Amino acid sequence: MTLYENLAIRLREHIELGFYKPGDKLPSVRQLAKEHGVSISTVQEAYRQLEQELLVEARPKSGYFVSAQKQDNLPSISRPPQRPLEVSQWEEVLNMLMIRSRTDAVQLQHAMPDMKAPTLKPLLKDLTKQDPEIGLGYSDIRGTEELRTQLCRLAVASGCQLHPDDLVITSGCQEALSVCLRAVTEPGDIIAIESPSFYGSMQAIKAANLKAMEIPTHPGTGISLEALELALDQWPIKAIFVTPTCNNPIGYTMPEDKKEQLYRLAQSYDITIIEDDIYGDISFQFPRPKTIKSFDTDGRVLLCSSFSKSIAPGMRVGWIAPGRYRDKVTHIKYVSSSMCPVMPQLAVAKFIRLGGYAKHIRQMRQNYEKQRDQLLKAIKTYFPKDTRVSFPDGSFILWVELNQHIDSMKLMKKCREHGVGFAPGPLFSATGKYRNCFRLNYSEQSSEKREWAIKSLGEVINTFQPQES
User: Fold this and answer.
1) What is the pTM of this model?
2) Is the pLDDT at 469 greater than 60, yes or no?
3) Number of domains in the chain
4) What are the HTH gntR-type domain coordinates in residue numbering (predicted)?
């Protein structure tokens, strides 16, 4: 256990035992460093960990204080049907993807990063300078070695030790997920998946002619291992499909020990894990959370990710660390789309190598965390009091749960008339559950536009409330 973890445990105990009351000022960073014989950075990291747990809050120029109250309005634990199901909802997903709203509308439905960040300028500039003779020809079907080498460097932060030959580059994470599903299953197989889950994952399951076994999921710690084990005992599940870090849509990051337990569970049942880590680099935690792949000793975890959320979706640069399935994944990728465009790969590799990516990520983490808090404050101000909302410790999306009588599909149509868009809850389930829920993005628009959008959305939601007698 590290020094900052030990210090965080002591402070947590003092808070929970009542030595420090809600609203009390905590000892200064310098005071704690001196008392415990540790560095200032160790104390800062301990406080940061307690901030992530919502036990303390930092006030500019004042120091750290015990939070007035811990986050207690998280969305409910999901309770999906206890049987494998065919995935539906494609028409609803397609309709949302094809929406062409008025130009003054505030679109909060798409999980899009901030693509206007000044830290992206070196990358965008370099894209126009690529040598055409290199960029327009065929390349290694696994992707350029330059990019795979840089990805191996990045993987160290997530606890993985990879070699360039361990990776296959794809056209974004969606292709990576689709390729992995086809590599480890046959039509008709059952896939265990979180509930709710990203609609792109659901549609990849549908396209592969598979069935989804939705597993109850906690909004703070992730997929229920107890429920998953019961499902594994009852059904011939072929693989587990999870997004355990900065989950889309409900935002949780699975604790490290639980990630290892999930891996051990897959080992004991001898099944595969497909891990989507697309938001891992924009976690607000430090150090960056480990992947399930970091515990993989027998190649059963297929790790998927891309730069679509950390840089821009138009780059179409994703990758797979497929473990024991490398040869099959490479073949399916080749048959599916052959090689990926070379120019974006070379530009991203250089961006990483020269330090531009690390600088960009640091800035985006700070921006997104600030924007999350702004949006949560606006929701608390304008939404009904019984609203429940996620508290993501990374990424740029929130999951909102309204009163059971509110239908988010009907709400979406009404809000579109007011110039506000969001992603309705039924898209995130195999059978259209979560009708009283929806997902919001807080990265693209200005804070003023987001505030206006949440206020407008709140006004429309309140028209759906039951009339008081």
Assistant:
1) 0.82
2) no
3) 3
4) 1-69
